[in-house]
Specification:
Layout lengths: L4 E2 L14 H14 L7 E3 L1 H8 L3 H13 L3 E3 L5 E3 L4 H22 L5 H14 L2 H4 L2 H15 L5 H25 L5 H15 L3 H23 L6 H9 L12
Parallel strand pairs: 1-2
Antiparallel strand pairs: 2-4, 3-4
Length: about 250
């Protein structure tokens, strides 16, 4: 687990509508946490945040409660707030949800994709497979999110909304992979993205879904291997079986 970290001063927030203040503070802090600008293990003080963002403590308190409900903050009984660190069971549950939801969405999307849809998907992949994404995590997260949006675009708005919320939470973990694997961290996901898009272009919905599920699960397996090597992700393995994957996740020791 990472040591507690003191954060740098945050720029003021221009929140002009009082009744929306807490929502705007929540959205702003959530974005900073997910992007890695506020790192895991960082201690957050209500007083310091209120001063930095130039708002009162009331919206700060409500925003922090919302972040706690999303699993992004850990708040102790003495009200000390800390940006989440790796919780193996929570991480596994998050990726089980992503695997099952996104594989369903892939199966719904592939059969009704138009030729223009496939061209846009290919363009999204090409934009992701660039040096600017391989060397810059923020660029990668932005373009990776766009690619995954394209992969599920015909799944229906409610399902897409759930998928995006889970993906945005999981993006917090990407900075840990980026930090732990060095300059070649992008090679595995890039190859998997290429294979997934090839299945889309061939109109193979079952294959695309299995590859998408394996791709998501492998990220979780790598994180667990690095930060919780004794944890056994049996739920995630069962989720892979449900989508028709026979992969036995060799990245995780039995």
């Amino acid at each position: 687990m990472e040591k507690d970290q003191r954060r740098q001063r945050i720029a003021p927030l221009n929140a002009n509508v009082p009744r929306r203040m807490a929502l705007e503070v929540h959205s702003h802090l959530r974005r900073l946490i997910i992007s890695g600008q506020i790192r895991t293990g960082t201690i957050l003080s209500q007083a310091e945040l209120a001063r930095d963002l130039e708002v009162s403590r009331t919206p700060i308190r409500e925003a922090m409660r919302m972040l706690q409900e999303e699993g992004l903050l850990e708040i102790s009984p003495n009200q000390r707030a800390r940006v989440m660190s790796i919780d193996a069971e929570a991480l596994e549950s998050l990726y089980c949800r992503r695997v099952l939801l996104e594989c369903l969405a892939v199966r719904l999307t592939v059969p009704i994709m138009s030729s223009d849809d496939r061209k846009r998907l290919r363009a999204a992949l090409d934009a992701l497979c660039t040096d600017s994404c391989r060397s810059n995590l923020r660029n990668f997260i932005q373009r990776n999110s766009h690619l995954h949006d394209m992969m599920v675009r015909h799944a229906g708005q409610n399902l897409i909304r759930e998928i995006r919320a889970a993906r945005e939470t999981s993006e917090l973990y990407l900075s840990l992979i980026y930090a732990s694997q060095g300059k070649d961290w992008w090679k595995r996901p890039e190859l998997e993205h290429i294979e997934i898009v090839a299945a889309y272009e061939a109109g193979q919905s079952d294959l695309a879904a299995v590859r998408a599920g394996q791709h998501l699960a492998q990220t979780a397996f790598e994180l667990l291997q690095n930060f919780a090597p004794d944890y056994q992700p049996v739920r995630l393995r069962e989720a892979l079986k449900l989508i028709g994957s026979n992969t036995n996740a060799s990245a995780v020791k039995d």
